[in-house]
Amino acid sequence: MASLMAPLHIGIAACSAEGAALCYRTICTEAPALLGTHDHPEVTVHTPSLGQYMDHIYRGDWPAVAEMMLTSAEKLARVGADFVICPDNTIHQALPFIEARSPLPWLHIAHCVADEARARGFRKVALTGTKWLVGSPVYPADYVRPTMDEREEINRIIMDELVRGVVKPEQVAYFQKVIGRLKGEGCDAVALSCTEIPLIMNDRNSPLPTLDSTRLLARAALKRAIAGVKKAA
User: Tens digit of pLDDT for each residue in 6-36?
Assistant: First the structure.
């Protein structure tokens, strides 16, 4: 029997569970509209302990973060993944340390967000995420950052609550307040650049149109997987 054509195998190098789960679910639930009923690309997820990642991040040891990302890529390569995505904005600042040594190519989450911002004609984008992400060069310098106090509270919400699956109305109210202030500064969109933020914020409750980094990465992965079809065994 002739071999069938199959999408590329997506590898997910996970960091925090909630964001990775949303990315994985998006791939699997949106793929059937493109591939047919119940169909989606093969997906493999590797998830080391978030505690190990955070030990390195709290020390500012980004090369060590990068080595954890490389370990995920190596394991994903061994099980047949064709490329890697990482549904965690913060640790992308470590990717340059190991990208050239990676056995698989990576899709960059910030590039997915920037592509969508350009496609939709946004000119002044607000940036939300962990304090490490917002203070990093992962996103363009012209993205508008929250104040230092806002960064600390957003970081607390993310790290103490959202990554643990804790969702509260007070979180939404605080994000609405910050995004509303950034809208007053002339921003025309907001990047939800922690993969847990879309658990509470979206176009329906945000004062600004949202750029959902989690789902944009998932959709970019789907597009790449489908465009790079290979012969199935």
Answer: 999 999 999 999 999 999 999 999 999 999 9
Q: How many residues does the chain have?
A: 233
CATH of domain 113-212: 3.40.50.1860
This prediction's pTM = 0.94
Average pLDDT, the chain: 96
Q: Is residue 210 classed exposed, middle or buried when 0-12, 13-18 and 19+ CB atoms within 10 A define those classes? A: buried
Query: What is the CATH number that goes with domain 5-109+216-231?
Result: 3.40.50.1860
Phi-psi domain of 60 (left: phi exceeds 0; alpha: psi -120 through 50; beta: other) = left
Residue 232: left (phi > 0), alpha (psi -120 to 50), or beta? beta
In the numeric block, which tokens belong to residue 126? 């607000």
Intervals of CATH 3.40.50.1860 along the chain? 5-109+216-231, 113-212
